[in-house]
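During the first year of the project, the team set up a workflow for recording each protein of interest as an amino acid sequence followed immediately by a discrete structure-token representation. This format lets reviewers and collaborators read both layers of information side by side without switching files. As required by the reporting guidelines, we include two representative entries from the current panel. The first entry is reproduced here exactly as it appears in our internal archive.
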Amino acid sequence: MWGEAKVVERIDWNDELFTLRLSADIGDFIAGQFIKLSQHIEGKRVARAYSLVNAPSSDLVEVLAINVEGGVLSPNLQALNVGDTVDISTKAAGFMTLDELPNQGRHLWFFATGTAVGPFISMMRTPQPWGRFDKVILVYGVRYADDLAYIEEFESYKSQYPGQFELVTSVTREPYEGAINMRITQGMLTGVIEAQTGVKLTAEDAQVMICGHPEMIKELNQLLLDRGLVKNLRRAPGQITVEKYW
């Protein structure tokens, strides 16, 4: 089922990375879920999934997207201006939500690369993680510093939730003040991330949500399994929840 979404605002983080804020009726959703944006291109409907960045209480639909080289839909989305329209799925979907986490663990770890930080932003814009966990840790990896979207919002959480929120940024292809200059998995293997946050990631204390590049997910998942954490399933609650972003 498709409806119409009108562009109300756009933010260009760099030449390829952008946010669209849309006026659209998608009904109720849970932070962490996604919708699909679509256009008819050369006589065929082309649709792609995008995580919702906005909180469920927001009046606007918000997505973070990147113009994928060779992509069919993403260049058209980047070309949209305020007042333009795009088709949108009228019902959100997805199971990477805080509601799916078992009621155990004091520390919530978000690991994201690139645009996959989107669903975690939606969650952090709700009261749920802040009321449920003693610590909320976001580990956010990108290639270049100007790929860091929403960084001012993340910095604001430090003062809004003092002692509760920890942020680690990973910028791999250039030095950037305050960021670790290594991949997320290397940062975990060497202990740099835990040292920077002051929090040890353990099976006893952690709930871990991972979203992003398939290789990052694969390597980090194995690292966590080696530490004694297990995949979270409805029939067998654990500590690791994963969503593959492409």
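The second entry, processed by the same pipeline in the following quarter, appears below.
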Amino acid sequence: GQRAVPPTHVEQFVERMLPAAQRASAASGIPAQLIMAQAALESGWGRREIHAADGTNSFNLFGIKADRSWKGPVAETTTTEYVNGVVQKTRAAFRAYGSYEEAFTDYARFLLGNPRYANVLATNNPEAAAHKLQRAGYATDPAYGGKLVRIMQQMS
């Protein structure tokens, strides 16, 4: 008989995260494909998640930093930033959550509550929204929009 092929890390990630992404999409109007692509890109398909110093998972799949408005727990770790096009390693405090579900909910709230993402929220096309996300300054990586589009193509 046919041996079942074990799901790849991509399939496992999609299976585990898609329901939460769909709920965040329904609540925010942000395309679920885009939410999933960001979670995949920022966390390396769940294999490079942000952990606190003591090893606890932050469940932060979106690389959202803990700014002054954040009142919850934080996880501090080394991150890669592009400063004037040059890659630099730096320490940063990231928001920490109690679950993936919380992370998706906060991500949607973060985009909805931030005026600079208004253009992203007004776009129904996930590919166009990905490039608008980059232009709005979500990430310092100059290739961010293109990377998101490639990931969305991988998942479809």
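For the second entry, the following points were noted during internal review. The helical segments are 9-28, 32-43, 100-112, 118-121, 126-135, 144-155. The chain has a mean pLDDT of 92. Both points are flagged for discussion at the upcoming steering committee meeting.
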